[in-house]
Amino acid sequence: MLVAEAARDAEIDTLKEEVYRSLLAPESAENVNLKVTLGRLAEACTAVNRHLGAPLATMVGLDDRERTGKYRLIYVFSAGRRWVSVETEIDPTNPRFPSVTPGLPAAHWYEREVQDMLGLIPDGHPDPRRLVLHDDWPEGVFPLRKDFDPSGPVPRVDGYKHRFHHLHGEGIVEIPVGPIHAGVIEPGHFRFAAVGEVVLHLEARLFYSHRGIEKLAEGKRFDHVLQIAERICGACSLSHAVAYSQAIESIAGTVIPQRAAILRTFYLELERLYNHIGDLGNICAGVGFAVGASQGGRLKEEMMRLNERLTGNRFLRGVCSIGGVRLNPSTEVVRDAANTLHKIEAEFRNFVDLLMGTEPFLDRLTGTGVVSYQAARDLGAVGVAARASGVDCDARRDHPHAGYGALQIAVPVRTSGDVHARALVRVDESLISFALARELLSSLPSGPLAVEVRELPTYETAIGVTESPRGENVHWVRTGKNGSIDRYRIRSASYCNWPVVALAVPGNMVPDFPLINKSFELCYSCLDR
Amino acid sequence: MDIVLLLANLGLALIVAPLLNGIIKKSKAGWQNRQGPGILQPWYDILKYISRESVISEHASWIFRFAPYVYFGAHLAAAGLVPMVLIESPLSGVGDVIVLVGLLALARFALALAALDTASNFGGMGTSRELAFAALVEPALFLALFALAIPAGSTAIGALVGDSGVTVAHVLAAGALFIAAIAETGRIPVDNPDTHLELTMAHEGMLLEYSGRPLALLLWGTQIKQLVILSLLAAIFIPWGAAGDRSAASLIVGLTAYMLKLGLLGLALALVETTNVKLRVFRVPELLGAASLLGLLAITSVYLVGG
User: Fold this and answer.
1) Domain interval for residue B99
2) Which chain B residues touch A360 with a CB distance below 8 Å?
3) What is the CATH number of the domain that holds A13?
4) How many domains does chain A have?
5) Hey, is the C-beta of B192 within 8 angstroms of any chain A C-beta?
6) What would the pLDDT profile of A470-495 be if each residue is shown by its tens digit?
7) CA distance B88 to A225
8) What is the rounded CA–CA span in Å between residue B275 and residue B285?
9) How far is CA B114 from CA A51, A509, B102, in A?
């Protein structure tokens, strides 16, 4: 027993040394790749996670049978400004791997997804049920394997029956809600176990809006895929587009012009602003505070109209191109933007005063839907949800992208982890974003808008990251032949935060769920892809 | 009993109840920086639902089919009990405040059964909340009304309509009845009539399974209930202008005064809704408890200071 433990400790020590050595090595200033055998996968991942304090950023499963005859798993960690990838290969004759989840809870959904989409079974996963595929999907059909043909329909079959966790006991009722709701919102099925009005357990069954975007991108030319990336999500179109473009640019070795970088940054801040303001209005709607809801909605609308005047699109679509941006804003439009932002900022401050001066509103928010620091860390929460629970993370500062490297980014962090904290983080960030947007507008450099990217090297990988209004988006891209995309793994902020929602609800009352949900304001489409 | 007056009251209630709701909605919209729908919109909605097909769950029994008629009928009967344009109430010889509260309870009972009948979750949750609130609202209603009935020596509604002047009991009872009115009309801070969030619904949750003509009856019935409650408040606490006889002049004055009073109370409800936030479910009993307490204080004041 002791001998085995000592041996494992020694192994972890060598791993740590390996990691440190590669991090210190000057030639690998960007990324560190650790190739490990299947047997060492779990230890390598936990070692990187614990000893380097590096959270899991994404996990990619690849069908590499054509090239190497193997499947490949890549766990990517965010260590400071660098990415540490732990790679392993899986033999197709025995498509199983030891689950990393028991030592690294944040990996739980990635491994279930790999099981659904590639048929790679995580041995020892605490919850090996289906995640992405629904009950009518046939067994043994794996959409992300290269031999899966996406052109025809897949037959719907009976057979798989999703087993929800049931709670038994006196007075426990199960409340199924959705996927079709009374309001016009995205689909999601929520199952509450409650005693009276108090929720004991919540399970969410999502992935109803799966469009197969990752499969769709395979084999398409890289510039075409940008159009797809923009349509992953409505509310964070631009941050997805920029994340993808950056991944492609780093594969091509392109440095975008300064003017393009600043414009991208400016538009990303506009995206954050219209989302944060709208989300604050939605929190008001969650408690029936109609004045707040309509003011939030009105200010969001003003922001979106500004987006349209600036870029021709309310959702800032079409403005980002590979190698830069597409549209050069005229001086009149820039002046209009400066004036409008000034006006909206003043009105936003009044709006915040109204919210913070309404005692019954604050009463509903305080202490509702608490996420502990530990839970946020363990599940790898990102964005507003993480920062409201004391996790100091922001991809704008931690992985500087677009033009953020030259800016001083203040990261507001709150520690109470409740709906109130999430609302306050949005307020703080919006005020910071107004200031940033103003600063960027006044310092717009002149110069070209974009550089052309014609060809890409074959089988190169890169990661593009952006801080979307909901948190960090990580796009992992590998190129194929002739400028095509071989594998595109999109990890949105919502993907990390949905499991956190399920954890925030127990102990609260059933009618507080919509409020808690709105305080995260996660996106179903980003998650489902 | 006076058939002409009864028919006039019922007709007025049927026509004005949706308009009153329209006015409340419009004024809320105004305070929220919105245009809002026109005040005739509730009427258009009722007409629309009447012409629509009704989809009924295959698990529903006869209770589900009959409940809307009971609900509508009970509220319409209640409209016959309250004084509107005239000081007197058309059914004054037949029923008193106890019958009035009983009719409201009958309607609620019918709707609760119907909402449970289809075994839908939201019906069940809505019912449990609505009945929990009702159990607290009814004592408040009774206490406040008794505080007025004791000095008048009668529970007849006509007897409560004030010639006794403004007393401490009146003020306390008015507070209790206003809170009860908010709860009975399903408004913020107790319930939210405009929500689409099914998990937070009380009254709306009970209606979710209904469509078509039965839904029209339920909506109309709810609006009549709102009118009845506001008419009762108006008759007891702001009796000025109500017609004492049936001359044309006093009828015109009475009608104008009645409409103004309804509008005023509607605006008060809209104002409370705009300036407040829905309470946590577990804090609603505190509010309704306060209403009961006000009612109790009103009764106490009758004995302590003689009204």
Assistant:
1) 3-304
2) 189, 276-277, 279
3) 3.30.460.80
4) 3
5) yes
6) 999 999 999 988 888 999 999 999 99
7) 76
8) 20
9) 60, 25, 18
